[in-house]
Amino acid sequence: MTGLQRAGRWIGDHLVMAAGLLVLVYMFVPIAVVMLMSFNDNSKSRNVYAFRDFTWSNWAHPCRPDGMCDAVVRSIEIGLLATLVATLLGTLAAFALVRHDFVGRSVANTVIFLPMASPEIVMGSSLLALFVAGGFGGQLGFVTIFIAHVMFCLSFVIVTVKARLSGLDGNLEQAAMDLYASEWTTFWRVTFPLVFPGIAAAALLSFSLSFDDFIITNLNAGQTVTFPMFVWGVAQRGIPMQVNVVGTVMFLISLFLVLTNMLVTRKKAAV
């Protein structure tokens, strides 16, 4: 075998791994840039996208830009509330769609995907028209943003939990009931622990979507300012480096939660 053939065989054997690594690099380079820029001192430069000097000032004074921390807190509040309601309603809906047969079930399964497939500008304008028609045109704010976020998060929760439920082995529940466990005990001791990773994933996804949303929020916010709207507003004058601090903190929290869930799942599987 010639050297060229060996090189071709090596490339063929490692092509998938190389492609995967390139995709990971493509995904994480922007995050690395955000982390790096959170330590950037751009006080002496108008170019906020060029790294000048290293500083801890951005981390020591994350609320220095007026209104930023208020916007972050507001986004977290809306995200947590929307996640709680969407996860609860979406989980119940997923159980109904997977475990029960009723008239219109196939139609419901199709309709669930519509908010996910519709452009956000269409959803946002439709919700705005709904609120105006309902007499809330002059009262847009926290409540209307919350309602809008619950609405578009529901579909993602239902789809995620449905996927987890569809993969469960029904024999496990049947075995528990054969051992004289009640339906309530079977649910909390068998079904819920098995479904919980899907519920947790749906909740994390919902919070990320809610915290990050701009288009739907901007159309239904009134005078309320969330963190994405704050970033859009200050971007016209120059983004403060503290925005990168918030982005880094949110990424690290998400990474911690994902790794914790993975370790707990592996520990339970090993036992």
Q: Which keywords apply here?
A:
MetI-like fold, globular, transport, membrane, two-stranded antiparallel ribbon, ABC transporter permease, mainly alpha, MetI-like_sf, 2 domains, Bact_Polyamine_Transport
Account of the protein in words:
The N and C termini lie far apart (48 Å). This protein folds into two domains: 3-58, no CATH class; 67-240, MetI-like fold (Orthogonal Bundle). Helix 3 packs across helix 11, helix 7 (142-166) packs across helix 9 (183-212) and helix 8 (170-178) packs antiparallel against helix 9. It is built from twelve helices and two strands, in the order H-E-E-H-H-H-H-H-H-H-H-H-H-H. It is 75% helix and 1% strand. It is mostly helical and 271 residues long. Strands 1-2 form a two-stranded antiparallel sheet. It has helices at residues 3-37, 57-60, 68-99, 105-112, 114-117, 120-133, 142-166, 170-178, 183-212, 215-220, 227-234, 242-270; strands at residues 40-41, 53-54. The chain is globular, with a radius of gyration of 24 Å.
Q: What's this model, at a glance?
A:
This protein has 271 residues and is mainly alpha-helical. It has twelve helices and two strands. Helix 1 packs across helix 12, helix 3 packs across helix 11 and helix 8 runs antiparallel to helix 9.
Question: Secondary-structure map with pairings?
Answer:
Elements: H1 3-37, E1 40-41, E2 53-54, H2 57-60, H3 68-99, H4 105-112, H5 114-117, H6 120-133, H7 142-166, H8 170-178, H9 183-212, H10 215-220, H11 227-234, H12 242-270
Antiparallel strand pairs: 1-2
